[in-house]
Design goal:
This protein is of the alpha/beta class. It contains 11 helices and 10 strands. It has one domain: Aldolase class I (TIM Barrel). It is globular, with a radius of gyration of 18 Å. Bound molecules: ligand PBG. The site of ligand PBG has 10 residues, from loops.
Length: 308
Amino acid sequence: MRRLVAETRLHPAELILPAFVSEGITEAKPIASMPGVVQHTRDTLRKAAVEAAEAGVGGIMLFGLPVVKDAVGSEGTNPDGILQQAIRDVVAEVGDQMVVMSDLCLDEFTDHGHCGVLAEDGSVDNDATLARYAEMAVVQAEAGVHMVGPSGMMDGQIGVVRRALDEAGHQDVSILAYTAKYASALYGPFREAVNSSLKGDRKTYQQDPANAREALRELELDLAEGADLVMVKPAMLYLDVLRQVADVSPVPVAAYQISGEYSMVEAAAANGWIERERTILETLTSIRRAGAEQILTYWAVEAAAMLG
Ligand code: PBG
């Protein structure tokens, strides 16, 4: 009876696997704060992508970790940089079976760890950063990516990326907008995952957890600028925001179940305090129920297997 009348169902095709690929390593490297998640080599990333495709996962979101970082994140726009190599690898391997996406942000590539370039006073320079994002979008599109994910929360980023892609002949590359991205304490494990150099915080560009109305304004702006999908992030602590966005969005709404959400469940489960698999499915079901139609989750492959 429960199966017959369930209002919310999960399907592997709606899941997106975030994956990290690192330039300087010869074998996959575990991330201590995210048990079960690794920094991939190009080779193990290819295998992980095949595994995800075979499990029926709908998409993969790639994050690249360069050896060399600098103030402007040069490796992010190097056509042979690690992220571009990974895009080419994964598109060649599974591009016909799943949507290949790339993080469009500078924080993995800058030596100060911010999502943008800095002004002389050390603050993040919004408009100078937009020019870098435009360049990055074109380089990623030229590597063959299907969809870019601008995650830096700069004002105007979607419009600038859309225009740059169109002008370079990449009208078919779509945009997953990080629309409502909050300055959350739960990004901690991700910062280990990407060898982050960040010292301060991202409060000058990410949203205040206290505010929901702002998310709707960000939605309007991203839609006007050309977002194909919009996203709320983190997921579990922002289900109300997700619901509000989903109620009015004319385009699909995604949610990112971030590193800290993953690590909290894994840590409690490892202690035997909660039932791991039931909890995983309950979190994903709740995110889906709140209005997300696509979910980025580090459990994508495992959850797909549980659902299959
Ligand atoms: C920024 C970015 C972050 C995440 C995805 N893209 C980190 C941040 O804003 O500090 C976090 C994802 C996670 O915590 O799982 N490029």
